[in-house]
Amino acid sequence: MNKKNYFLIGLTLLALLVSVYFNVTQAEKLKTAISKNNLLHADFVQAISMISLGITEAQPPDIVSIEHAYKMFALADYTSYDKQVINQYTRILPGILRDMNYFKKPIRHATEIKEQLRLLANNPVKQEAINELMRLVELDEGAS
After folding, report:
1. Phi-psi category of 104—alpha, beta or left, where left has phi over 0 and alpha has psi -120 to 50?
2. What is the pLDDT of residues 30-53, one digit of tens each?
C-alpha cells in the first residue's frame, strides 16, 4: 500500500469515529428529552387527579383544588396532548374553582366531579369525561 491508501483509510476511520460520537451524543439528548417529556406528562396527569383532593360535597372548593387546577393549566401548554381538546377544561376549570371558593359556592356534585377527574387523569383527552366534568362544574357554579 502506498501513502495515499493509508491516508484514505485514516480519513475514513476519523469520519467513522466522528459519526459514532455524534450518533451517541444525539441518542443521549433524545433519551433526556423523552425522559423530561414523560415527567411533564406525569406531572400534568397528577395535577388533574390532585384537584379532587379539595373537593368535598356541600363545601366550596378548597385551596388545594385551586392550586392543582392552576398547575394543570400551566403544564397544559407543554404536553403533547391535543391542545384543542384539553383546553376545553384546562383553561376554564381553574377560574371556576377560584370563583366558587371566593364566593363560597358549595359543590353539589362532588362524587361525580371526582369520578370525571379520575377518568381524565387516566386519559386527559377523553371527550365524554371533559363534557361531563364541565357540565357538572358549571351546574355547581350557577347554583346558589
Report:
1. left
2. 888 888 888 899 999 999 999 999
Q: Measuring CA to CA, which residue among 43, 70, 54 is closest to residue 113?
A: 54
| Cβ neighbours of 99 (radius 10 Å) | 14
pTM: 0.79
Give the confidence band of 110 by pLDDT, cuts at 50, 70, 90.
Answer: very high
Buried b (16+ CB within 10 A) or exposed e, 117-135: bebbbeebeeeebbebbbe
Give me the number of domains the chain comprises. Answer: 1
Q: Is 59 helix (H, G, I), strand (E, B) or coil?
A: coil
Dump the DSSP string for 102-131: HTTPPBS-HHHHHHHHHHHHH-TT-HHHHH
The three three-digit cell numbers of residue 37, written as one number: 417529556
Domain that holds residue 31: 3-142
